[in-house]
Design brief:
The chain is α/β, with parallel strands linked by helices. The chain has helices at 2-5, 13-32, 41-53, 78-84, 97-109, 122-125, 146-153, 172-184, 225-228, and strands at residues 66-70, 89-94, 118-119, 135-141, 157-167, 187-196, 203-211. It binds S-adenosyl-L-homocysteine (SAH). S-adenosyl-L-homocysteine binds next to β2 and α6.
Length: 236
């Protein structure tokens, strides 16, 4: 809990109990399927739970917001966020069905009524009716390079909405490509904040991109293309 208090968060006893249940469910499910690389309790608490909650730094998620979690995996940051912020509506999205099923089952067991998971690739969902410009925020943790995230996330945001991306250290070239890509899809990088993970000390970066205008219809490109040919970004 030291990690959480370092974020300036106070958990109620009921919430601590919910995190303990989440930990148990995650370990139980990981024993049966490949859900997460971490198995040790302390690692899960620090590198999944506490790390997920670092997206609350900077106050970018204040208010009653509709939040899409792009590439949620086993539910990060969506589940910890839903647990401490019942006022947020969370839509965790992932291309892998078994992961999304785990997130749905877990939300039900923990009675998190603010979690509404979807199985889809972001490229396809981002073109779907009722999805474009339908969210106040997109959160995403450890999913892709910034230019790819910009193309996948910005279509979901209303103008004025924010992408809040949780990453490790970011190279200057990735950031530059990310800025150009954001401009191309209707956004602008607002904040790049390096910090260290409480207790564990690992280097992290919280990046915020604001949607400043509509995303051109040609984005996102079709499935797989944003990753294979990231905007303004040459991977070797
Ligand atoms: N956010 C989680 C998982 C990170 S792993 C965590 O921090 O633990 C990246 C996840 O993103 C994988 O589960 C993968 O299936 C998903 N993903 C990657 N590209 C995607 C896309 N285009 N659409 C939907 N999901 C995607």
């Amino acid at each position: 809990m030291e990690g959480v208090s370092q974020l300036g968060l106070e958990l109620e006893p009921g919430q601590v109990e919910q995190f303990a249940r989440l930990l148990a469910l995650l370990r139980e499910a990981s024993a049966q399927m490949n859900l997460t690389a971490l198995h040790d309790e302390r690692d899960i608490v620090l590198k999944h739970f506490v790390d997920s909650l670092t997206c609350l730094r900077g106050g970018w998620l204040e208010g009653e917001l509709r939040v899409l979690d792009l590439g949620t995996g086993a539910g990060f940051p969506a589940l910890p966020l839903a647990l401490v912020r019942p006022d947020l509506q969370l839509i965790p999205v992932d291309a892998t069905r078994k992961k999304v099923e785990f997130v749905g089952r877990t939300a039900q067991t923990l009675k998190l009524e603010n979690v509404h998971p979807l199985v889809s690739r972001a490229e396809t969902l981002g073109r779907g009716p009722g999805q474009r410009e339908a969210y106040d925020r997109v959160v995403t943790r450890a999913v892709a390079a910034l230019p790819i995230l910009a193309e996948l996330a910005l279509p979901f945001l209303r103008v004025g909405g924010l992408l809040v991306a949780q990453k490790g250290p970011i190279a200057p070239e990735e950031l530059e490509a990310g800025k150009l890509a954001a401009a191309e899809v209707g956004g602008e990088v607002r904040s790049v904040e390096p910090f260290t993970l409480p207790v564990a000390g690992d280097a992290r970066t919280l990046i915020v991109v604001e949607k400043t205008g509509p995303t051109p219809d040609r984005y996102p490109r079709r499935e797989g293309v944003p990753n294979r040919k990231p905007l303004f970004w040459r991977t070797t």
